[in-house]
């Protein structure tokens, strides 16, 4: 008997993308990038890769992968976030890819690109879990750029 997961109110078979992101195995998650799946499991796969590579961003290859997959995740948000909202009972949970990407870009001196990421997060009404939110993050990036 195969496992099923609840996605947007319907039970669907758990696929390799689900198995990959729940495994936490970066190699398995990277291998699953090319597999078509539902928007929810796609979101968690991309987020899992970003989280894993962000933690290792001092390694140039992990930093490159973090930037690549984070940008891919953001480019797919138009499709992913509406499904995530439905799957989450009408609200959007935190999407750490935005803060991770903004941080890496700012660390790389790409301040305007980091600000654009924060502005995109604001356009989706996302929260980053900090008191100042993405607006405060933008202010910090601007202050850093001015130095």
Structural write-up:
The protein has a two-stranded antiparallel ribbon with strand order 1-2. The N and C termini lie far apart (60 Å). Helix 1 runs parallel beside helix 3 (39-55), helix 3 (39-55) packs across helix 5 (77-87) and helix 3 (39-55) runs parallel beside helix 6. It is mainly α and 147 residues long. The mean pLDDT is 95. The longest helix is centred in the N-terminal third of the chain and has 17 residues, at 39-55. It has helices at residues 16-23, 26-31, 39-55, 60-75, 77-87, 97-107, 111-123, 133-146, and strands at 4-7, 10-13.
Span from first to last CA?
60 Å
Q: What's the β-strand tally?
A: 2
Computed structural class: mainly alpha
Percent strand: 5-15%
Quick one: overall form? globular
Describe the sheet with the most strands.
2 strands, antiparallel
**Helix coverage percent:** 55-70%
Assembly form of the protein: single chain
What string gives the helices and strands in order? EEHHHHHHHH
Summary keywords:
single chain, 147 residues, mainly alpha, two-stranded antiparallel sheet, 8 helices, globular
List the helices and strands and how they pair.
Blueprint: E1 4-7, E2 10-13, H1 16-23, H2 26-31, H3 39-55, H4 60-75, H5 77-87, H6 97-107, H7 111-123, H8 133-146
Antiparallel strand pairs: 1-2
Helix pairs in contact: 1-3, 3-4, 3-5, 3-6, 4-6, 6-7, 7-8
Summarize the structure.
The chain is 65% helix and 5% strand. With 147 residues, the protein is mainly alpha-helical.
